[in-house]
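By convention, each integer encodes one residue's backbone shape. The lines below illustrate.
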Amino acid sequence: MEQANFNVLEILCNVYGKVEKSKLSKEKLRKAQKEIDLLNEYLGTSSIQSVLFCVIFSLGYKRRGSVDLEDIAAYLETSELDIVRYKKDIDFLCEKCFVEVEESARSRSKMPMASSIFSINSILSDCIMNNQNLSSVNIKKTTLDRYDFVKSISDLIENRDDDDLPFTWLKRKLLLAEEKSCDLDFVKQTKKAIPEPEDRLLFYEVCDDFIQTSRRASDVGITLNDIYGSTRLMLTAAHSLKNGENQLIKDEFVSLTKGGLFDDSEITLTEKGKQLFLQEDVGLFVKTVSDKDLLKPENIKSKSLFYSAEVKNQIDFLQTNLQSEQLRNLRQRLDDINMPKGVCALFYGTPGTGKTETALQIAKATNRAIMQVDISQTKSCWFGESEKKIKEIFDKYRQLCKDAEQTPILLFNEADAVLSKRKDVGVSNVAQTENAIQNIILQEMETLDGILIATTNLANNFDAAFERRFLFKVKFEKPTIEAKMRIWNDKLPWLTPTDSKQLAEAFDFSGGEIDNIVRKATMDELITGKHSSIEQLMLLCSNERLANAERKKVGF
């Protein structure tokens, strides 16, 4: 560490003592000229700049870190206007990063420097304390990171509300704060993405609440009141949000929970908003997919499936297009013609016909993991929670796509609840919630950059809005007699062709129902040590369905 040729701190103390009540007159400053010259040499400044620096530095300790125009004028026993005459010298100290300036959160003044608060750069302060020569260090402007920045804007909003200051004051303070942090990439990117200061104010506040609150969201009524104060401005902003006319909503930086704006409604960051704010930290704030919800291809057991010729052709075509090279080419071609790059497939039809198993086998064949979603778990009795859970599912899937070498498959198994026809919102709050969930899924499917497979048993109640968003729609029907014979032979290879034909013709079973019989036959084999006879299998088949089993009357 290269040391200065003299004791810098001692010189500062001497100058500070000699310029008190000097009114910056040349005659009184002459008494300290020798020490001032040494400071000029150390800082590379003029005499008046060195004196102003010395006063700000020394008063900073007395004022616990920062001083204003009034403090400087009082010490020098002159007027604030006299100090303003040296604005260019103070600006020079700021440009050199020796002095940092910020605007007082509580000042209403629009006069130059009237609301300025000055402090000494912490790196320079350390150099002076250590008597270190400035030529050996790099004095940089102390800048906020994005988290500190949004916190500072939130503090401004709070001060506006506490002091009942006008909204115009808040907008002016925002612009000054952005100017001070103009080198911060987050500020640059936000100003480019969100041109209007009014929209940026709301965005910064939502960002801060996302970090500060456990719900990762802002209460709409409280937030708008804090920002605007004025009832008229607040209601105008509320209508803009609710009607989807607000630019933050249009550009998908924030989203709003449905319902009355001033009745527990919340506003939070979308995936796009999180990317803008959190940048490389976004993965820390998006819930990861647990092993319980993620099925890796190596953990999927191979299974023989039997389809009709038509269904087999459709499945083979889908599986071929999901192979790595083919999918990459397909996505590029779709992107070139400005069409959605996501691949959405719907497997619908009779229960037990292999819809879910087909999705699993496609995943294994294409070496893709499956993110499984239980739609029933997204339903919540709390207003707005179901919508948030659905959004979290897609957020997690997007993050999973970024982290995975192979694009995984998002599987909505038994998605009857969300693919059914939308209900009249006047019927119930449940209907309103289900419609809101459907709207989110429809929007996500429109912009999907991955693979989604949904299975449903209720094709007759299928909502038309979903139909066009599924690129593949495969109908699974109960197997033909020939297909059932192949299934029986595959599951119980010791059956004779006559036995398998007899079972296939006697019982109109799906593949899932045949699986149940096979499991019970396996249990019997473990007990008796021998295969079930055709008669035993016929008995098991007869008792498979509730309609054929003895029913007991329930009652008292």
Observations:
- The first strand starts at residue 67 and ends at 68.
